[in-house]
Amino acid sequence: MLFNSPEFILMFLPVTLAIFFTLGRLGYNRVAIAALVAASFVFYSWWKPLLLSLLIFSIIFNYFLGYGLSKPLQLPFSKRLLLIIGIAVNLGLLGYFKYANFFISTFNDLAGTNFNLTKIILPLGISFFTFQQITYLVDSFLGKIPENNFLDYCLFVSFFPKIFAGPIVRYHEMMPQLASASIYRFNQEDLAVGLTIFIIGLGKKVLIADQMFAYIYPVFSAALQGTPLTFYDAWSGALAYTFQLYFDFCGYSEMAIGTARMFGIKLPLNFDSPYKAVNISDFWRRWHITLSNFLRDYIYIALGGNRQGELRRNVNLMTTMLLGGLWHGAGWTFVLWGGLHGAYLIINHQWRSFRKFLGQDLKKTTWWSIALGCFVTFIAVVVGWVLFRAETIGSALAILKTMFGFNGISLSASVVPERKRLFFILLLAIWVLPNTKQWLSKYEPFLLEKPEKQTAGSWSDRFWQKFQWQPNKLLGFLFGILMFIAVKIILEAPETKFLYFDF
């Protein structure tokens, strides 16, 4: 079952909301939680019922392991060893389902062997619920989780808005919200805010992301087959995928966050206008924020961060990004993508160090330096997305060579529809328009790692504040029309999955 399916929008979501708040109104709060867990299990098992057993095993194993790590129990071995075993089991399951065939194929290529690849079905969401449970084990070991309730833990792992593709939520972010009696009572503001965020996300997915396929597939398919591309073709394919990936995954995240908010639960912000980033570090503070925070806290800092000099910092950065690339997919293109971003981050840090050496004030900026930084960062990210999307390294290099004029510069199209105006409009939209967080800031739509202070902001912030979202009849009518159009497209067109389900 997908967020962009009629089954979810017209049946599953309204029925689940009705059951949850009916039980809450009657005072059966724990029963309401149990009903939400049951609904989440139904949601997860809709595609492959047998895979529910893996999720249940993972929940039971990690809960009791976390219980042992958080309590002052007398164990015949150290809790550190228990933690290592827990992480190893979680990574072992993830490694088998996601990377077994990749490792076998790589070994065959290196050793000249011919071991048979096995048919392994990748359980949806395994990357995300595995990472969430690793954070739970580590935080339990560090004494950050004082309470361990099995029913609450089941909801923490399986909560259906976030089970497949995040956001990656930590135990201490979600569980305290369940202690508030207010979330069990129907709240019009939560419903209005949540439904608005959901519709925005649905619009990004259906009206923008899904429409990019016609510009992406011909380009990457042609490169794979060795068909020559024009300069316009290559940039069209790269930009179209840049838009598709962002609007698809941001759309999913906002639909997840909006759905959770209808239940009175806030989930963390996952995207904050990443293509407005002024450098690559800024990009990773804005793109897939919950994954970036996980990589920072549980890999980069665990390796030593920047505490042991520049050389060790650079090694830690590269290691973190290589692992982040491999997490996204079992392929060398993903590893190279991670390595490329690791190199970007190292270059960015060295540039900052060089500017400090020259005595420049890093806090001082001008409009042209911001614009230049944004442009350079965007181009660097687009280059990376070509590696991310391409099926082979060779096809990625073929597209990149054409993008940078090695095969001549032609602005005519050969394999893609010519839509220069469309790309310009989308670029203008992502660089100028406020994002969902900014537009609904008055109603605190997201759970932020560090709550933002209210400031006057730039002239653009002050300008867009005049057009902030308000729950009124006009916006309700307009969003109703947007919802109708999106549902109509869903009913008439073939069902499309979210891109990050592959990761």
SSE arrangement:
Layout: H1 6-25, H2 29-45, H3 52-70, H4 79-111, H5 126-141, H6 150-158, H7 171-178, H8 188-208, H9 213-225, H10 231-262, H11 280-286, H12 289-300, H13 310-328, H14 332-357, H15 367-389, H16 393-403, H17 420-432, H18 436-439, H19 459-465, H20 473-492
Molecular structure report:
It is a single chain. The chain is built from 20 helices and no strands. It has 503 residues and is an all-alpha fold. The chain folds into two domains: 6-186, no CATH class; 191-278 and 365-451 and 460-502, no CATH class. It is globular.
Summarize the model shown.
The protein is an all-alpha fold and 503 residues long.
Task: Calculate the terminal CA-CA distance, rounded to whole Å.
Answer: 17 Å
Q: Name the helix and strand elements from N-terminus to C-terminus, one letter apiece.
A: HHHHHHHHHHHHHHHHHHHH
- What is the approximate shape? globular
Name the helicity range.
Answer: 55-70%
The largest sheet is: none
Question: How many structural domains can be distinguished in the coordinates?
Answer: 2
Question: What share of residues are in beta strands?
Answer: under 5%
Uncertain segments are none
User: What is the SS-derived class?
Assistant: mainly alpha
Looking at the chains present, what oligomeric state does this protein adopt? single chain
- Give the radius of gyration: 24 Å
Number of helices: 20
Report the average pLDDT across residues: 89
Strand elements, count: 0
